[in-house]
Design goal:
By secondary structure, the chain is mostly helical. The protein has one helix spanning 2-76. 97% of the residues lie in helices and 0% in strands. The longest helix is centred in the middle third of the chain and has 75 residues, at 2-76. It starts with a helix and ends with a helix.
Length: 77
């Protein structure tokens, strides 16, 4: 009957709307995941910078300790 067809059509539209809502949610989740990935990349980039800075400090400390050894050696001469 016509009422059954109308009801089925309405139900189909609701499912389509529901699918659209789900796909929109999926896009939002995908965007969020991308943001988290970007955030993780930013953190790892910062971590690399800190690691580089630490290496520079270590290198600087090595230079200082070498200079101190040279100065001590000069004092001995």
């Amino acid at each position: 009957t016509r009422e059954t067809l109308c009801f089925a059509w309405r139900k189909t539209r609701l499912y389509q709307f529901d699918n659209l809502a789900h796909s929109r949610d999926a896009l939002l989740l995908k965007r969020k995941a991308r943001l988290y990935q970007f955030d993780n990349l930013a953190h790892s980039r910062d971590a690399l910078r800190l690691k580089r800075k630490t290496r520079l400090y270590q290198f600087d400390n090595l230079t200082h300790s070498r200079d101190a050894l040279i100065n001590n050696y000069k004092d001995c001469i």
